[in-house]
TrEMBL record:
It comes from the Bacteria. This is Diaminobutyrate--2-oxoglutarate transaminase. Keywords: Aminotransferase, Pyridoxal phosphate, Transferase. Gene3D superfamilies: Aspartate Aminotransferase, domain 1, Type I PLP-dependent aspartate aminotransferase-like (Major domain). InterPro entries: Aminotrans_3 (IPR005814), Aminotrans_3_PPA_site (IPR049704), Dat (IPR004637), Ectoine_EctB (IPR012773), PyrdxlP-dep_Trfase (IPR015424), PyrdxlP-dep_Trfase_major (IPR015421), PyrdxlP-dep_Trfase_small (IPR015422). The keyword Transferase applies. It comes from Paenibacillus helianthi. Its cofactor is pyridoxal 5'-phosphate. Pathway: Amine and polyamine biosynthesis; ectoine biosynthesis; L-ectoine from L-aspartate 4-semialdehyde: step 1/3. The lineage of its organism: Bacteria, Bacillati, Bacillota, Bacilli, Bacillales. PROSITE patterns: AA_TRANSFER_CLASS_3. Its EC number is 2.6.1.76. Belongs to the class-III pyridoxal-phosphate-dependent aminotransferase family.
Length: 426
């Protein structure tokens, strides 16, 4: 790791939490250079919903390469893009009665968020965006303006404008009437807030601490936006593509957003890709008005098509709900009794153990570090990083899922008792 310390920028972050060199990965396990296995409860920050090197997707990618197919195509018509659009229409849009245009943005989620906010402003001829406290939408200047984390915003080195933040439901401010407040902002001629172009929201705040918005609340928010002619953008970058138990995280509601942002696991294999879904009437772009050299990642199209087939063949939605129930049961019956002060939150296969209400909120950091020592990769999120985030690949085997949960349990038990931590708990 010496070369990393000598040459790699200080901006690196995840390697500080997981200080080893990784060489291989398969399914839900990462292997260090010395072949030590680590159960993956991180899933590439949500980019690996189908796990590492899934054979079904890998075979399709290898076959595509062996045929000398198009690798770089900008936004030209290609067979890979054509196939993906056909598959997305067949597997995702048509069965749900959804009508959207597909915009292929730059390869990262933040670029698709930028595109969503740009087109919302162009359509409405308004500049403002409403975002939520605890929200995370990206690190480029436009999306960063809609991201609430103070330390992330500090990296901009300049003021970030045209975004108004309001409290999230059931988030940091308990029992706050967010929708009533938003109604006042939009209706009151003395609110001091200009009518915005759009509201951008994560239906589950992941980096914000695993807060799940109730279905009825989301429906009321959508109705409020429609009433005031404000566009609704759902950022499904981290909790979309099946993470909550349905392909889109908002399917537990009757909401059909004006714009939907996808990235991370849309490619199926951890390949860079982002996608903006927009209602047809909003597609008022001029040619090339939002472009980028890598807005057509052909390998990602191939992986994405294979992933759509895979999730259908594996009945993945039902499997996610079943595994989610296993995690919830374990957390409430095995973890909560150890430290009653923790709060348990989540849905599908994204769950959080919040140590914020404990006498020592930084126990979350100690637990995460000890879990890594014991062979489990897990990260912390939320305010002051007091929430342990459980986010394994959707296709994780049940025994590995339970083994990872048991590592968390034994780690918490040892820390709570003051006993010394072993390098291998199980």
């Amino acid at each position: 790791m010496v070369i990393h310390e000598e040459l790699e920028s200080n901006v690196k972050s995840y390697c500080r939490s997981f200080p080893t060199t990784f060489g291989k990965a398969k399914g839900s396990i990462l292997y260090s250079s010395d072949d030590r296995p680590y159960i993956d409860f991180f899933a590439g920050a949500g980019a690996l919903n189908y796990g590492h090197n899934h054979p079904y997707i890998k075979e399709r990618l290898i076959a595509y390469l062996q045929e000398d197919s198009i690798i770089h195509g900008l936004d030209m018509y290609t067979e890979a893009k054509q196939q993906f659009m056909t598959d997305f229409q067949e597997h995702i849009l048509s069965p749900r009665g959804m009508e959207y245009k597909l915009q292929f943005c730059g390869p990262t989620g933040t670029n698709a968020v930028e595109a969503a906010m740009k087109i919302a402003r162009k359509v409405t001829q308004r500049a403002g965006i409403i975002s939520f406290m605890g929200g995370f939408h990206g690190m480029s200047l436009g999306s960063l303006a809609a991201t609430s984390n103070r330390s992330s915003r500090a990296g901009a080195g300049m003021p970030l404008h045209n975004v108004t933040f309001i409290p999230y439901c059931d988030g940091y401010l308990k029992n706050f009437d967010t929708l009533g407040y938003l109604e006042a902002l939009l209706s009151d001629t003395h609110s001091g807030v200009e009518k915005p172009a759009a509201v951008i929201i994560e239906t589950v705040q992941a980096e914000g601490g695993i807060y799940v918005a109730p279905a009825q609340w989301l429906e009321q928010l959508a109705a409020l936006c429609k009433q005031h002619d404000v566009l609704l953008i759902v950022d499904d970058i981290q909790v979309g593509c099946g993470r909550t138990g349905s392909f889109f995280s908002f399917e537990r509601t009757n909401v059909q957003p004006d714009l939907i942002v996808l990235s991370k696991s849309i490619s199926g294999y951890g390949l860079p890709m982002s996608l903006l879904l927009l209602k047809p009437e909003l597609d008022v772009w001029s040619p090339g008005e939002h472009n980028g050299t890598f807005r057509g990642n052909q390998m990602a199209f191939v992986g994405a098509s294979a992933a759509l087939e895979l999730r259908s063949n594996e009945n993945l939605d039902q499997s996610v709900l079943q595994k989610g129930a296993i995690i919830e049961n374990f957390l409430r019956n095995e973890i909560k009794p150890l430290i009653p002060e923790v709060d348990i939150r989540g849905i599908g296969l994204i769950w959080g153990i919040d140590f914020g209400g404990c006498a020592d909120p930084m126990s979350a950091e100690r637990v995460a570090k000890a879990c890594f020592q014991a062979g489990l990769i897990i990260e912390r999120v939320g305010r002051n990083d007091t929430v342990l985030k459980i986010m394994p690949p959707l296709m994780i085997e049940q025994d590995l899922l339970l083994q990872g949960c048991e590592i968390i349990k034994q780690t918490i038990r040892l820390i709570a008792s003051g006993e010394p931590l072993a390098s291998s708990i199980l």
